[in-house]
Amino acid sequence: MLNVERLCVKKDGEFEVLHECTSAKNAGVNKQERALYEQRTQQNLQKLAMMQEKLYADGKEGVVVILQAMDAAGKDGAVKHVIGALNPQGVDVVSFKQPTKEELAHDYLWRAVRALPTRGKIAIFNRSYYEDVLVVQVHHLEKTYRMAERCIDDDFFEKRYRQIVDFERYLYENSYRVVKIFLNVSKERQKERFLERIDDPAKNWKFSQADLKERAHFESYQKVYRDVIDATAKRDTPWYVVPADQKWLARYCISEILVNTMNEINPEFPELSDEEKAGLAQCRTLLTADSQEEKEKNKK
Ligand code: AMP
Ligand code: MG
To answer: Alpha carbon 202 to chain centroid distance?
Structure first.
């Protein structure tokens, strides 16, 4: 089976061939094995559910899963799929849309900081502050920002890369894991999925004419994604470039990546102190005495 570590970019400048795969075929995965992959995904999701409970009880580390992708790469479906397996009490899903006026009047990390989960929880960022170096860079939206002139220079995005790396290191050093996943869909498959959205009335709502405008910039996005991933993939806060032309493969990869992350965290149910254990034993005695009393009462 495909080892997701082969999809992992850990250091800047390391962008291997496998990191540019969009399909099962390019990743060397046999489509005949689909059922096997789906089975493994289900097992992973069950494991995740168990580990999530420990993560929550342990409360030591928080997890931020960042999902980035071009339109129709399957982000929303993947969120639904993974979330379905987890206890909703321990998960936040945050969608990063076009910034509001209030958000634009703040620094770009402001809304991300506000969306951070407490330790013990998992936050899934459906898009993220990476939009501030992706869509903003492709369309040069920074030119429309109300900011001091000294800030908007040729190094604008280089500075943002550095800030993001620093921010993620800050999170790592403060007991958070940041897992970054790029769902890599081909231009051809995007076209097929757009056509499906146009032709199927139940999917019409998923399509907007703006999506087509963005598609015209597909190649620019590819280049910018590559730069961004190169600049921000680090050992402790790596990027995974996941082939997304087949949803079953993408979901398998996401489930593997999350299980691996949880294994690294290795959460445990908290061990009680002797005092707490004694307290529990006392409660047990009281409860049993209680039920003894009930029995006596019922007899009468
Ligand atoms: P969707 O995820 O399809 O609902 O679309 C959300 C849209 O908001 C996408 O087109 C994003 O590129 C856009 N978006 C998200 N964050 C930003 C940002 N910081 N600046 C500009 N556009 C953004
Ligand atoms: Mg969209």
So the answer is: 26
Which sign, positive or negative, has the C-alpha torsion 127, 230, 178, 242? positive
In the structure, what pLDDT confidence band is assigned to residue 84 with cuts at 50, 70 and 90? confident
For 42-71, what is each residue's pLDDT tens digit? 999 999 999 999 999 999 999 999 999 999
Phi, psi of 234, rounded to the nearest 5 degrees: -130, 165
Helix, strand or coil, per DSSP, at residue 127 = coil
As for how many domains the chain has, the answer is 2
Q: What are phi and psi of 298, to 5 degrees?
A: -60, -30
Average pLDDT over residues 203-230: 95
Indicate the top mutation candidate among 127, 160, 194, 228 to test ligand 1's pocket, ranked by most ligand atoms within 8 A of CB: 127
Q: Which of 95, 131, 134, 194 to mutate to test the pocket of ligand 1 (most atoms within 8 A of CB)?
A: 131
Provide the CB-side half-sphere exposure for 192 (13 A, CA). 9
Per-residue pLDDT, 83: 85
280's CB contacts (< 8 A; 6+ apart) are 272
CATH number of 241's domain: 3.40.50.300
* C-alpha–C-alpha distance, residues 90 and 52, integer Å: 8
What does the chain come to in residues? 300
Do both 135 and 284 map to the same domain? Answer: no
Provide the whole-model pTM: 0.94
CB 71 within 8 A of CB 214: yes
209 Cβ below 6 A of ligand 1: no
Query: Using CA positions, which residue lies closest to atom 3 of ligand 1?
Result: 71
Q: Which long-range contacts (CB under 8 A, 24 or more apart) does 207-212 make?
A: 211/71, 211/72
The residues with which 93 forms a beta bridge, in sequence order, are 124
Q: Are residues 158 and 241 in the same domain?
A: yes
